[in-house]
# Entry
Amino acid sequence: MKDITYPFRDQSDAGMIADRNVFDRLATWYETAKAERHERSEGREVELRCVSPLGQTSLYPDDLPLVFLTRNDARLMPGFLAHYRSLGVTRFICVDDASTDGTREYLLGEPDVDLWASALRHREARHGRLCREALFALYGGERWYVNVDSDEFLVYDDCENRTLWSVIHALEDLKISRLPAPMLDMYPIDLGAADVNQLKTRAPWEVADHFDSRGYSLATTTRAITVKGGARHREFDSDLELIKYPLIFWDEDCRFGAGIHQPLPFQRNFSSVLGALLHFALFADYKEIAEDATSGGPHFDGSAANSRTQDTGGSTDLLQLFTHSSVKFGGSKQLLRLGFITPVPRPTAGGER
# Structure
């Protein structure tokens, strides 16, 4: 394992991720072969049912699809769809995990959403990984997908002005087939005042507008990048993995069996951190979200958050997320300046879209 300073102090720190010697590469090859054998022996499938009025939509070569899982996130849905539409997503492919708050009804009314349901709950479907793999098989491989959860908002260098197609063409120029991005837990200064009704007219980063500027660790293992820390570690003593790969070229060799944080084949997981996922789970209703996650929902770290809630007697007033390391979110250039992300090169001529 190689430890790397994060946030990065300069580009040389970020470059250490891909700087792997022959022994590192051989170890990764061996881990990939071992994990692939295990996945072939598992062979479990999940049955999905499209509940959209017009059924499954066919994808065209110039479509940019986004696959996501959700449960009871009606509060975030308008902002989520608007954000990714602005980044160039043309088709949303969603598995709803038995929502009861109107999420399903809202998504059924959106013409660019294909909505799916499964008899298996999120936890039973290997924390949703089986559902994702099934959707990739249904919609077809050999193409790029955005792959996130409904409380994750991808940001990258100059995302306010350039679409994901620009990033994809830059990655293709660099022979990179997936984009690593750590989750940054976003939170408000006053948790009790962060009413989710504000999300009807404001972007989530305008309500939960702070994140921890330090307190992270980054390393490379034989399988992937690993990132820990942030607000969830500081406040909830959670050791959950933060790294994800939200932009991925999916082909017949890809699987999530080893974990959403370590997609197969492992050899593709080592490139500079070009993006970050703003993660929104901490509003005034976070206690209900934590309880839902504990019961099997896909959000946050339910057991750790519930434990902290019990310590504070269930009061959000006693949970003080703001600290000396907190900074207010100021867009992609701020994350670039602070070292959370690295620059995305401009693609070769004709690569912008």
